[in-house]
């Protein structure tokens, strides 16, 4: 009979030390919070970009603040900026007066364009749905199994800056008030160990972290970068993704809005670079955040409460960084005027040109970069001739009107 081999594993093979270490770690996690503080700096940056620049920015204390503090110092010294270097939604800003096209580098304009589906007027939504439905009907004539298209034609939405609210005045939204509420909730959670165990370490770390986060959002550099443009713009601007886009957002120049052409180039504007005081402030904040990290690493008891505070904070940070906003939340107060939408992009541009001088012509090279057909060229010539005739009639009418006579006071 062959000898029996000894079992590879037996009860004595496994040590109880491993299970004890797991149990101890999960009952009272150690050094986890200090590690988590080094993660998620990009989320903090986007949340601050969303809320900072108009007073308190309730971006709560959470994981990632130490990493952000160090990276912001590096960015301010190397690139002289606090706002994100690139917008998270690509678009273009077109000057309707001269047709100049500028690639947008403003994080604010990128967010306004990204969230257009959430803040656009219901008339725009209705017109877009009608165009898509009409195109689907045409497609089904040739192919009954055709799927509904995602877009059709071009929809131009006309907006006018408010004459009652000063441009650059931010309207607070739910993100702001939610952030304030979450800060209070974090302090309540941090106070629980004091009442239950007399342990005030979590409260100290939470309070200091909240204070440092608020100070970071109060830096004047945020406002200088966020609205790096002139006010009282009298030029009409168009925000669009360009050729192939479904929508074009037109902001009329009535002397009450922001200069969107300036704003689109704001990230490269040397006049809003971080100054020495901003760099010194960021250096001091980064130092304090590192000291707070060292302090948090020394907490060995009741660490679940500290993790709960950081977990609540990161949820708020993600919400603040990604939630959709309206233009007035970025200081651009707009009133809807009308919508222009046709099944053919060329028809939309022609209608825009008939209604607003130079608007269609400014968009024409973007949506039709090639040579126009003979038929399309003739249609544009008709629009130009009709405008010239209207100018001539208006000029003759103004000459025919009698000029008011000014009376002179007789000397006695």
Structural class assignment? alpha+beta
Strand order of the largest sheet: 2-1-5-6-3-8
Shape: elongated
Strand residues, percent: 5-15%
- Using only CA atoms, what is the Rg? 30 Å
How far apart are the termini?
Answer: 148 Å
Please tally the β strands and state the result: 8
Quaternary status? single chain
- The number of helices is 16
Low-confidence stretches: 407-412
| Sheet with most strands | 6 strands, mixed
Task: Write down the overall mean pLDDT.
Answer: 85
Residues in helices, as a percent range: 40-55%
- The string of secondary-structure elements, in order, is HHHHEEHHHEHHHEEEEHHHEHHH
Transmembrane segments: 175-194, 200-222, 280-298
Keywords: Membrane, Transmembrane, Transmembrane helix
Structure description:
- With 412 residues, the protein is α+β, with helices and mostly antiparallel strands.
- It has 16 helices and eight strands.
- It has helices at 16-27, 32-36, 41-51, 65-78, 107-114, 116-119, 122-142, 174-197, 201-217, 221-226, 260-264, 276-297, 303-322, 345-355, 359-367, 374-400, and strands at 92-95, 101-103, 154-161, 231-233, 237-240, 247-251, 257-258, 334-342.
- The chain has a six-stranded mixed beta sheet, with helices on both faces. The protein has a two-stranded antiparallel ribbon with strand order 4-7.
- Strand 1 (92-95) and strand 2 (101-103) form a beta hairpin.
Per-chain topology:
Elements: H1 16-27, H2 32-36, H3 41-51, H4 65-78, E1 92-95, E2 101-103, H5 107-114, H6 116-119, H7 122-142, E3 154-161, H8 174-197, H9 201-217, H10 221-226, E4 231-233, E5 237-240, E6 247-251, E7 257-258, H11 260-264, H12 276-297, H13 303-322, E8 334-342, H14 345-355, H15 359-367, H16 374-400
Parallel strand pairs: 3-6
Antiparallel strand pairs: 1-2, 1-5, 3-8, 4-7, 5-6
